[in-house]
Write a structure and sequence with these properties.
It is a single chain. The protein is of the alpha/beta class. The protein has a seven-stranded mixed β-sheet. α2 runs antiparallel to α9, α6 crosses α8 and α9 packs antiparallel against α10.
Length: 292
């Protein structure tokens, strides 16, 4: 991952759409290498209750991270009562390589519209859905999340570590139109607890992290009712302990260029910052849901 050098301190959207598209296009191969081979490939935080053992291998650390990513999906499914809420038409906002979309389709029978802004990811989502045997249930769509067409079309919308890339007020208003009466919005993301964490987080992930209050206010303005709020910061802290161990191990491999070494060092520093923020309340990681 690369740091963004431009000063966007006065830009309410933090990163432009070309920035975000370029970021995810550029990350595709590293995501596949680290979290593949699929068909459920995730690029999000996971549940890890213990730090990794000293000296764990790169392969073991990757396996731990992949298991943690699946674990958080099962946890969310329980909190959100997925057997009843993910059985209809579901909009997966910022679907990445489709891991979550395939999960909801495979495990709960959802018909998923998987929205991505990265052109190459459409093919990956379709390829992985076919491998998982849910190609008839997962439809990949290349578009901005604010430009999804339709009215009263979805029973649920889910955003997993993707809502920070969206203008919250506009997005919640759009969801208010896209959802059928009684439809639900499900979000898992990192939220800002204290301002000193904001700049580094935004620059690294080319995003705009928000506060819990910001999300709640945007949802109210859009006519959506708040339901579940579940702070799981303490259960995600060691996901970042594990990514730190992995980046350190990867950086120690031979044959790396100076640029590659610098990227690993940058990743290690920011991942350490996230772990610290989750520990001291500067950052929060939580599930939330709203209903129309």
């Amino acid at each position: 991952m690369k740091l963004v050098q431009e000063d966007r301190s006065n830009d309410s959207s933090s990163a432009t759409k070309p920035d975000v598209v370029g970021y995810f296009e550029g990350k595709t191969q590293s995501i596949l290498s680290r979290y593949g081979p699929g068909p459920r490939v995730h690029y999000h935080t996971g549940l890890v209750d213990e730090p990794p053992p000293p000296g764990a291998s790169i392969l073991d650390l990757r396996r731990r991270l992949i298991a943690a990513q699946e674990r958080i999906l099962w946890y969310a499914a329980e909190v959100w009562d997925a057997p009843s809420t993910f059985t209809g038409d579901v909009l997966d906002v910022g679907c990445g390589l489709g891991g979550g979309s395939i999960f909801w389709a495979s495990e709960f029978g959802a018909q998923v519209t998987a929205v991505t802004c990265a052109p190459s990811h459409v093919d990956w989502v379709e390829r992985f859905a076919a491998q998982a045997g849910v190609e008839s249930q997962v439809r990949a769509q290349l578009c901005d999340a604010l430009e999804v067409a339709g009215e009263n079309h979805f029973d649920a919308a889910v955003a997993f570590d993707s809502s920070g890339y969206l203008l919250r007020n506009e997005w919640f208003r759009r969801l208010g139109s896209l959802l059928r009466p009684g439809g639900r919005v499900f979000i898992i993301d990192c939220f800002l607890g204290r301002p000193e964490y904001e700049e580094a987080f935004n620059l690294y992930w080319r995003t705009r992290i928000g506060t819990i209050d910001e999300y709640m206010a945007a949802a109210r303005e859009a006519g959506l009712r708040s339901e579940v709020f579940d702070d799981i910061s303490h259960r995600t802290e060691h996901f970042w302990t594990t990514t730190q161990a992995l980046t350190k191990a990867e950086a120690q491999k031979g044959g790396l260029s100076n640029a590659e070494k610098l990227r690993y060092e940058g990743s290690h520093r920011v991942h350490a910052l996230v772990r610290q923020g989750l520990n001291d309340g500067g950052l929060l990681y939580a599930l939330m849901s709203f209903s129309k």
